[in-house]
Write a structure and sequence with these properties.
Length: about 325
């Protein structure tokens, strides 16, 4: 009963009592009895509702009752985990950069007598200029499809790039070879020269060297958050994540390229990061035989380019 209805009933009761000649004490006594009946009725109704609720709950299996409590908690926890796993690696990347970002020098694990045509300077150290620029990263349009290599660089800055003799490039488009990185469990990954479909294979930029040649094959691969990394040949989506962990490679780790039934062994020499607009990673230096692996960093973003440089060695 609402407060206004109760007040109306109370006034009506007083009027009837006065008109009937009852005293105020008798009126008060009647009102108290009326209120007591209302309270008793409300209490009984409340008890009946509580009893019905318990009966209904008792009919529900205990597994469903506990599930109704814990499932929302689990989903909330999973949501926090997924958000945290996506955000924390990026924040941590800038709060506490990986060791290789601050490393100006890398000691070579390669004996100089095993290195093919490379100056001691390249093997024993990296220049300070090779480190990522201190300027804030350029955030590029994330609506682009970055499984398409054509979206990785601005065509306007490509014109000044000097690659291999263009008369030879056309003959190499579509050539395929294989890549293995034992340290990352990458086996028999297909590298295709030219093209732009990073969701189907790795792409060696056309105009860069073939395995074993002077210069450097520049091989691009896609990366996503590390928890989704699955390079297994049985995974039909392996190329979406295949280069997610290449920046964890250590100096001296092996990278194997198999081309025309010949296997070439490269040892990791250095790592660096560059801005997404830096196309100089594609340039060829024909005084040595190297290899460059390129992906987006931090993993799962398109802010910068991570470049792993390796050196061809003799067996």
């Amino acid at each position: 009963m609402s407060k206004s209805n109760f007040q109306t009933d109370l006034v009506t009761l007083y009027r009837k009592a006065i008109l009937s000649g009852l005293s105020l004490d008798e009126v008060r006594h009647k009102i108290e009895r009326h209120v007591a009946r209302l309270q008793t009725t409300n209490q009984l109704e409340s008890e009946r509702m509580h009893s019905r609720k318990k009966e209904q709950l008792a009919k529900i299996p205990s597994a469903i009752r506990w599930g109704a409590i814990f499932i929302p908690v689990v989903f909330i926890g999973v949501g926090f985990y997924l958000v945290g796993s996506a955000v924390m690696p990026i924040l941590g990347y800038y709060v506490a950069p990986p060791e290789h970002i601050n490393q100006a020098k890398l000691a070579s694990p390669i004996p100089e007598d095993e290195v093919l045509d490379v100056t001691p300077l390249v093997i024993t150290q990296t220049n300070v200029e090779d480190r990522a620029p201190a300027t804030p990263p350029l955030i590029i349009d994330e609506t682009l499809d970055y499984t398409n290599l054509a979206n990785w660089f601005d065509p306007g800055v490509m014109s000044g790039l000097v690659l291999e003799d263009k008369s030879q490039v056309g003959d190499r488009i579509g050539v395929e070879y294989r890549l293995d990185i034992p340290a990352l469990n990458i086996e028999n990954a297909v590298v295709r020269v030219g093209g732009s479909e990073l969701d189907k294979n790795l792409v060696a930029y056309s105009g860069t060297a073939l395995p074993g040649e002077y210069g450097a094959p520049v091989i691009f691969g896609h990366s996503i958050l590390r928890q989704f990394y699955n390079p297994s040949p049985k995974n039909p989506r392996r190329y979406f994540s295949i280069f997610s962990t290449i920046m964890t490679l250590k100096t001296g780790d092996k990278i194997l390229l198999t081309f025309d039934d010949v296997q070439y062994t490269y040892l990791v020499q250095s790592k660096k990061e560059v801005l997404s607009t830096d196309v100089q990673i594609l340039t060829q230096q024909y005084d040595a035989r190297r290899l460059k692996l390129v992906t987006c960093v931090p993993e799962g973003t398109y802010l910068r380019r991570g470049v792993v440089t390796a050196q061809l060695v003799t067996e």
